[in-house]
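User: Fold this; tokens only.

Assistant: Input:
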Amino acid sequence: MSLLNNVIDHALDDGYAEATARRAAEGGGLPRTLRAKLGVAVGLVLAAAVVTVGAAEARISAPVVAKERQELIDRIESETSTADRLEADVERIRSEVGERQRQALQEHGGDQGELVALLSGATPVRGPGVKLVVDDAKGADGGGGGPRESSGFSDTGRVRDRDMQRIVNGLWESGAEAVSINGQRLTSLSAMRAAGDAVLVDNKPLVPPYTVLAVGNGQKLSSTFQDSADGQYLHALVENFGIRSSISAEGDLSLPAAPSLTVRTAEPRGAGAATPSGEAAADTGKGTS
């Protein structure tokens, strides 16, 4: 009977009783694992609440953002269309001015009107000549700027405006009668400048490769240019900077007329109007600056 009474009075092992009492004193009776699970559950609930609120706000603001984006796209398209129309108007007016200038040359030039128009670039030309293609070095990047002689300038293998100036002037000096670059006709008043890495001819940007067409005695023009100082300069660019170039004599080249002519002091001679010497004068000197 004493054994049975002891078993009934001590049904729970003393070690379990002590552990239960210790957990109750430390955490209010909840095991650590349970508390950790409850903490994770609370964190997930809070995260879900944050995501839900964010999604609701995004759903509310989405139409506003989409509307602003569409308005911006419409503005860009409108401004682009306006710029395209203005550019088309400029080209149309430039063509009209050029055509009237050509007509004036033919009307007031007399027997030499056609020759003056030819030398001034006011009329298209066709004939034999040379085709010279100049391109940047392979793998040339877009950095750098300024002439090659600039202190601290690291050459990037790009063709510069001054390179094309020397090439074109070399062709003029070698006997070219008409020259164009990438379809842009050059005259004695043409300007070649740089804007960053871009080459501008009469304020029109050109992109490489630069195709130079020069009307003249093809074989003679080619050999004379290559033997000239400017031809040797181009050869040095090829050898030292990796610039790519090729030149060939062509039997038939076609060059367009200049977009427009700039007349500074000359006037058509009419009744009672003449130059001081009594003869009309035309500037046919070549040179690209």
